[in-house]
Design goal:
The chain is built from 30 helices and eight strands. The strands form two sheets. It has a four-stranded mixed beta sheet with strand order 2-1-3-4. Strands 6-5-7-8 form a four-stranded antiparallel beta sheet. Helix content is 54%, strand content 8%. The chain is elongated. The protein has three domains: 115 residues, no CATH class; 337 residues, no CATH class; 129 residues, no CATH class. Helix 1 links the parallel strand 1 and strand 2. The termini are far apart. By secondary structure, the protein is of the alpha+beta class.
């Protein structure tokens, strides 16, 4: 078919559209923004007479793109020629010209849309609203980065309050001893496998310096000062403490904070002072990496539950156990456990639907993306209300802020900046090469993590596994999935001391269940790391938890750094002669039992976790 040409071509490529079509006008505004002045746009009502070679009926039926050489393209071809005037759209032209089937399929799709513009306009309003231009995210970036600073502050201060007793020189797992053992066993490889500043100094003073410096830099980030540099320092400081913390800093929110904090380095504006006005380049790669992290986090959290083989997720009975078996329940968790069975099953179904379906809307048009943000944030609030998950829920909500563009923020906060979007001319020039390298390296690893959620035990390709092996120590790309197998019972360890071997007195913890009359308490966003580890220890044996033996030794010595981690030390003056650990099975009391006895819990003794020991037992080791 001969190519139509016009005798009087325009000086600049020209797209002609139906100015009476609201659907056309909306999408032309988006394309006008994307092509950034490389193409002119004019309604047929004004421009059709300039080109008598093209019948007016043809103008009314399809878009027409007229190039400077006079060649005319219409339909899907016109759309691709217009977008192809900028670098990002050139691939579309290549596909149209060279990929078999691409041209006829896209032209057929174009004709369907053109014949049903009213319906297409309806779905445009439904999914995008009245403005389909590429959204800007400068306010979201500002809020996310400052929120990340607040979460870092919580993490550093929370650890600071416990660091002496956990990993200090007289703590349960002294970091100096840990690093010395690693050096003896691994030689020079230990430095790469355990990347921490504590290699230079592992004293209590240096641990306090790391926590204090982290808290200070977190405040600077919250104030919007030197965000790029602040995020880099925060990542280094928290990674150092996470490595030094050993089992006490091996939780999913710790690695999530490290991964999010690392990726945020490539997303934060390279300015000494951050603001939400959109005057700093916007990194598309950094934005994509953080959205991919949220997608991976939520999708894996849902899929691993169904793929674990635990029937309680499939028959929707998981919440029959979860509220009272989770590590640190809350009063709202106790109240939720009293709900009828149908409501618990509905809650499980809702949780799975949000975790598995909503993540795909992260990549959807504006309104669907906003709906996904609302569902994900709502789920995190519900989880936070019924359980103490430290700063995990806050961090997930912070990531969800990135799904809300400036158009919506403008309704709540202040007028949005102009639609410079995420493709402004400066953003491409400022895009750091390092962010592209991170994307290239981590994308296949993230793909394998997501695939492994669907296929547990799947073998990784050797090249990807090798790359992951190199970067695993710095914890910048990770897999996620809390409660893939629901715990169906709640064993609790009660540590008791005695001066004579006859009268035994219990050690009380701040947050974990102990006395039956003590109500479940709020700890979040603080994480009492010893209380959490006691929950894990109860699910195994003391031989599987070497830190537990160290804890008992410290209690036999009345080590103040460790006893300060407890709510009550029954031997404040002189340490006990003997110490033991008993195992009990705990369960929430029912509403009727609580009203009659005042007890929030009920329990049955299961026997010894560890028989009575003395300091002599440890000295002979």
């Amino acid at each position: 078919m001969a190519q139509t040409r016009v005798a009087d071509p325009p000086d600049k490529p020209l797209m002609i559209f139906d100015g009476d079509c609201l659907f056309c006008r909306r999408w032309i505004e988006r394309w006008r923004e994307l092509t950034r002045g490389a193409v002119e746009y004019a309604p047929l009502q004004e421009a059709a007479e300039r080109f008598p070679e093209i019948p007016r009926d043809d103008f009314e039926q399809a878009l027409h793109f007229i190039d400077v050489d006079g060649t005319v393209h219409c339909g899907a071809d016109a759309v691709f020629r217009s977008l192809g005037r900028v670098r990002a759209g050139r691939g579309l032209i290549w596909c149209y010209d060279h990929v078999p089937g691409f041209a006829p399929i896209t032209e057929a799709a174009y004709r369907v849309v053109a014949r049903h513009r009213m319906l297409a306009s309806f779905f445009t309003r439904l999914f995008w609203g009245n403005d389909v231009r590429r959204p800007a995210y400068f306010k979201s970036r500002d809020l996310f980065v400052r929120s990340l600073g607040a979460i870092y502050l919580i993490a550093f201060v929370s650890l600071w309050l416990q660091v002496d007793g956990l990993i200090g020189e007289q703590g349960i797992l002294p970091v100096g001893r840990h690093l010395q053992f690693a050096r003896e066993q691994l030689g020079s490889d230990a430095f790469a496998l355990f990347p921490t500043l504590c290699w230079f100094n592992s004293s209590n003073g240096f641990l306090h310096f790391l926590c204090g410096a982290g808290a200070l830099v977190s405040v600077l980030l919250m104030a919007g000062l030197a965000p790029f540099l602040s995020l880099a320092l925060l990542f280094l400081l928290y990674l150092s403490l996470a490595i030094a913390g050993q089992t006490f800093l091996s939780f999913q929110w710790d690695i999530l904070l490290l991964e999010a904090g690392f990726l945020a380095i490539f997303f934060a504006p390279c300015r000494w002072r951050m603001n939400a006005k959109g005057d700093a380049p916007f990194s598309r790669v950094g934005f994509f990496l953080l959205k991919l992290l949220l997608f991976k986090l939520m999708l894996m959290s849902g899929v691993v539950k169904l793929m674990s083989g635990d029937e309680s997720w499939w028959d929707l009975t998981a919440l029959d156990y979860h509220y009272w078996t989770q590590p640190l329940p809350t009063v709202i968790g106790w109240w939720s456990d009293q709900h009828p069975e149908w409501f618990k099953k509905f809650s499980v179904a809702f949780c799975l639907a949000v975790e598995i379906i909503a993540p795909f809307f992260i990549w959807a048009p504006r309104r669907l993306r906003h709906c996904a943000a609302g569902l994900l944030i709502g789920l995190q609030i519900a989880i936070a209300a019924t359980g103490n998950y430290c700063f995990f829920n806050l961090l997930t909500i912070a990531l969800c802020l990135l799904l809300i563009d400036d158009t919506l923020w403008a309704r709540w906060v202040r007028p949005a900046p102009s639609h410079s979007g995420i493709r402004g001319p400066r953003s491409a020039r400022a895009l750091p090469i390092a962010a592209i390298l991170v994307l290239v390296i981590t994308l296949p690893i993230n793909g394998m993590f997501i695939f492994s959620a669907f296929r547990p035990g799947a073998e990784w390709p050797r090249p990807i596994a090798a790359i992951y092996g190199y970067i695993e120590p710095i914890r910048v790309v990770n897999g996620y999935g809390l409660f893939r197998v629901m715990t169906k019972s709640r064993p609790e360890i009660i540590i008791e001391g005695s001066a004579d071997g006859i009268e035994w007195l219990p050690y009380e913890f701040h947050w974990k269940p102990g006395a039956l009359e003590t109500a479940p308490r709020w700890a979040a966003p603080h994480q009492p790391r010893l209380d959490w580890q006691m929950w894990f220890a109860a699910l195994g044996t003391y031989r599987q938890n070497s830190w537990f033996i160290s804890l008992l030794e410290r209690l036999l010595r009345n080590t103040p750094e460790v006893t300060r981690l407890l709510a009550q030390n029954p031997f404040p003056e002189n340490p006990p002669r003997y110490i033991r650990a008993r195992l009990y099975e705990y369960r929430f009391a029912t509403w009727a039992e609580y009203r009659s006895t005042g007890a929030w819990w009920k329990r049955e003794e299961r026997g010894e976790y560890l028989s009575a020991v003395t300091l002599e037992n440890f000295e002979r080791r």
